Amino acid sequence: MTHAHDIRSDGTAAPTDPVFGDPALAHTVPEDILGLLTGTFTASLGLHLLQASGAVTGGTAGVALLLDYATTLPFWALFAIVNLPFAVLALWKKGLDFTVRTAVAIGLVSAFSVLHNLAFPIPQIDPVYGTFGGNLLVGIGLLILFRHRASLGGITIIALIVQERWGFRAGWVQMIFDVAIIVAALWVVPWPLVLLSAAGAVLLSLVLALNHRPGRYVGH
Known about the structure:
Elements: H1 29-53, H2 59-70, H3 75-83, H4 86-119, H5 127-147, H6 155-166, H7 170-184, H8 191-211
Helix pairs in contact: 1-4, 1-5, 2-3, 3-4, 4-6, 5-8, 6-7, 7-8
């Protein structure tokens, strides 16, 4: 089997494998911009489905949804406010580049949530469809953002730090926090929706745990 570091018979190095080679190709600036837009649009659309279903999810998005149901403040503002305390943690542990990208991603999700409410109002939706579909979209959006060195802030930052430092996958870390958040939802959301939300959050965490493995893919 030929490896990326093999040497040809003439003494020259063989070309790096385009898929599994190391180092991986870095994203260009236009690719990063498109990645941030795509990831935040997808994740915000998933949150829009969750909000229309009356369900919750994990992470700071779940906290923002809970506060949205319990108060009169709009989701876009709550999402931004809840993530503010984690900005210092991101700057301290992940650096300025990651923090700026994450701040932009949080702002885009807040902006897209306003757009969805205006352009895609959902008067009625099956809660099972909305909960599972919403969590799938949020998971896909997060994966895109991770590949472009960004996140949606909050618990995701903690999960990424734990994964990088101790090797415990970000998806499992996220799941532990998500359980606590969804249990808290019993004070705001009817218990059948809480159970459904718990199943949806597990799906989201599985999407991250099974697909986000640093070093596996090119382009980071």
